[in-house]
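Recap from last week: sequence in, structure out.
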Amino acid sequence: MCPSSLPSHPLQVMEDPDDSLPQEMPVTASFLSSFTPTPPPPPPLPTLPQQARSLPPQVHSLAPLSKSTPILQELDDLLTRLERESKMKSGVENMLEVYIKDKRRTKDLEAQLEQCLLTIETITKEIERIRTQPGKESTGITEKLKTFHYTTTPFPVTKTTRTRTKGRSNSSPNIKGKHKVSQENFSFPDDDAWPIGKRLHHLVFQLRTDDWRQSKPGQPTDPAASKESKLEKLTVLLRILKNTADVDLYYPKRGLVTCLRQCIASPTKEVRIMALRTLRHLVEGPADVELIVQMQVGVFITRALARDSESHEMEREQTLKLVRSFIEYDGVKFIDQSVVRAVVAIAEQTDCRLRNISLETLAELSILDIGLTVRSGGLRILIQALLDGHLTMTEVLIQAVLFVLDTPDRRCYLRPGVELEMIIAPFTESNQGTNYEERLKNSARVVTLLLKNWAGIFYMCANNMRAARSVVQALRVPTPDTQKLVLDMFLDIFRVKLPKDYNNYLSGRQHTVHIDPSVTEPVNRSPRIGLSVLTSGVTGELMLAGGMPVSAYDRSSGSTTASNSERLKMLYHHLSIILIIFIESDILMALVDMVKSDDVYISRKATLLIGEILQLSTRLLPMSMGTQVQSLPKLFALASNFDDEHVRHNATAALAHIDKLTRVHARYVTPTPTKGERIANSIRTQEKVHEVKLKIGYAIDDTHFRQLLMDSQVLNTKDYTKWNWESIIELLQGPLLNPRRLDEAMRGKTFIRRLLTFYRPSKHQFSDLHATKANVARYVKHGCTLLSTLLGHLDGVRYLGEHKLLNDIADALSELGPLNGNPENEPVFSKERMESTLCAGYFTLLGTLSKHKEGVRMLEKFKLFSLFYQLSELRSRDDLKVAMITNLDYTLNGHPRVLLSKIMTSGYNPIRLFATQYLGIIMRQSESEYNGWAIRLLVTQLYDTHLEVCQEAVSLLDEACERPANLELLVKFRPSLGHLGEIGNPLLLRFLSTSTGFRYLNVLGYVDKEMDEWFEYRNRHYVTQLELSLARALVNTPDKKSLSPFEERIDSENDFEGLQPGDGLTPPHFYGELTKTEEGCSLLRERGHFQLFANYLREHSLEKQDMEVLQHLKAVLWAVGNIGATRNGLPFLEEEDIVKDIVAMAESNEVLSLKGTCYYVLGLISKTRQGMELLGELGWEGVLGHHGVPEGLCVPLNLRVFLTIRNWKYSAGLSKPPRLPLSVTKDEIASDILKNIGDMGNHILANEASKNLAKLRQRYSDCFQRVDVYYAVCQLLGSYHFRSP
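Predicted structure tokens:
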């Protein structure tokens, strides 16, 4: 579709430097006559700016010096002021570099810089006046100028200077071009010495002067010198545009566009590239785009995009960037159709380097102006590129197609049953071409993405689910590669996470597969807590050695919290409708047929998928639907068929796998104990193990005990490398638990003494070992066991207190004080040793002591807590603080909690953040359901100066308040959250769910203020937040945790990542939390918001075009759904009888995304028994959990009514006919040229038309140089489709 579709024909003639290109706008006499360059007018004399008028009178005076004037004194004052102003200018420029992103401050600094430049200019003029009229003081003036290192500043070209330069050129005709360039540069202003307006005026004047000289007949010009001169001026102009906002205040943009348009028409490639780049930086808003289009720059954009890709790639790239700047600055409505067709022509070239950016540009245009894109042929290219393009582009392009498919006014540009068949065609193709595998992968990826969007789901179900059935039938294609790829596609669609050893199972190396119950959980879990960069692998191992389990790191460990159970699991809800669609499409029968396959890989993978579908149907579908799925009569028939032994074996193995998966899931769904019950069970288990070990210790005889002591080798040698640590741990966990045996080991033997001596820092044994995982697991863990064994008996406590171990540790820690320690020797706990040796393990040993009351007394006795307080004040030793807080035990109220509080409120930001995060781990591992001390510390963190610390404190308090006791306690503390802004909203919404919290917030005026904000605009923000969360959760499959391509481009200032994670759960809603209390329901009834919501739903239930109304409609639906999700809020829905209206919208509305929103909202309403009954009367059945609790899932009993899309009338979106000048249409030769150019758009007539154009060019060459003919050709290229060469 581009001018380059005419190889070696009229448009290539325009490449010659002698050809003229259009300059002005319409096809009139003025348009045609504008192609003859005219000499530019002389620049007006610059007027003195207002800032300069404030200077002293002597600076303004330009009169000759009188004899009585003290010239040297005046010159000295001027030079001093010039030096001061130059320093001020330099300082302002440095400030500009620092605050380059702060627009408000940048504007002030630019005004100051302008003031400095004006003052410098005026002072310089005075100095030059004195220098050029020295009189009798010439020697003194010269010395003064040398003293101040003053150099001459170039001035703009005056009339006298121009005349002199011109005469010199005439008298020396053989002068070199570079000398001319230097003369021009002599008159070129320095960037910093002139005001912006004067610089822009001078640059435009010089560029137009160059063009006039170049076009004037008989004027000698050097092309290389002219090119360098233009590039230099364009470079300066580009730099000014980059660093200056609101250029129109300094110079009219129309003049700049006119100048740059002339440069874009230059025969020199480099000049055109720089001009396009400069023009892009001139665009600051839609008004600039409108100006550029009005000045016919679109003709030059089309010409640039049509050039040869090999030699003009950079020019095409800059042109595309210019077009994208039009889109970026909201100028789509001004973009000409010919420009879009040029972009389409590039997107059609599969081997073009700029194809991907062209496709992305078309995708954005289809969202912003679908009519323009369709008229230009862009939508057809996007759909074709879904299969032929790169796999990475699929996720970007499909979003644009789905956006077009969503509403009826855009859907009409797609042909019903045609475009979709193009996408899924590779699944049913019998003739596999050379590109078949790549096209099949793209098609599978497109189908997967279609099913993650409501528009795609409804389109796949159109025409009695024809597309879905076609994809399922691809499983029956007798091609192993196709079957494997389709199976992988369905595993992705159903979000199946395969077991770790599935490869061995699929390859036939093992007959069963280990099934982890967590694999059957499709909802994305939150990632582990990021404990900042302060922790290392060894620190984690030390924490494990000290008894901290791995589950403590996971925010989502344990059962579903009360808060999460109240939120809608949108991933579950989305997956349930996908499950029903493919079960209706007979996927189970197709998979059973695959079980019979001779290919073990295919047979077993189909078995895995059958088992997962059955388990999903058990959890996500109502009982009436789930029981029908579970029967699988065909699979049982194959298992009982003795005619084919291989098929019977495969079917039996499939049934065995399904049975195993069912039994594992049955164990998984048993009543999950609460956190307190789990901790109590763990304690009982530990007590039973301790009791068994104690019995073994009492039962052992003296001979056996002595033999164990001898086997440990501790009594035989002091060399710890020869000790048998397995025997040592056996003794510590068995016989030595008996007080008599322990006393014997302490008194009569040297066993305990040598073990404790090994850990003394002064012996440099344990403290010098390398910090490896193996050493931590052996020496640190055994040391903790040793101390625990000693602390279990009074004799052991007394023996430990008398030993030098703790005294040695205290001495080593005291070396770190600023007034202690020998600087010649490296301290035991130096930063290097803490990282490379097991010295950090001493804090784990001390943490074991802090778990026992006797151990705490011992730490106090040796003043170790006092040392900890001193170490916490060391600014440069965050590693010590991490070691202390991660190893101490906080069960007992005492020094550890005080120390943690001290570290949380002092030190640098990273350590405060780390301590706050670690407090969350402590709370998760707490045996108590009531953590008052931790809540108190977190409330303190809400007032931290670092925003991340506040955000982490809010997150942890929100997590802790899932327990009602903690929520009540937090409300009693009455924290002030107003200073946190959006960050504190989750906690404030938590407060609303209790009567105490509601009353507290109501007194503060928060409830009324927040209610007004949610009613006015925050409901719509909630929709954006929720849809981003769901899109992120759908894109992130169990095996792939990455953001979609669109999210990677979200500006950091508008990043919603921190607002809501991609967990697939609905965020807390103000109205939903409000209706959890009687007081909140009374307020809602008093304000009348729900009645307004209901009226709005009824009034706009059939809306299908206005995007603002549709967005507001979604916001109202989510508000109504969250109100109906609570027991107190459901009566509001019953009073207004609004549920039937929501069901009607879900079944009959023509906006597909709105139907999906209604589906989710009905799931919210089904979260109560009463809501399920209401929906049951309207033909929607809810899902109950194993304990009879509503799951918040409901599906339509009449699936076709919900999934049906009404047929629509296809709108071709034809292009408008071209408007051709009368001078062309009445000319027979010009008309013949246009006819042949039109034939080149037809691939059948193109060759003959090319030959005819070649003949016409030879006979009527002048006609090919006419501007009106060229304009007519551009009109043709903008109205019809042409391919690039």
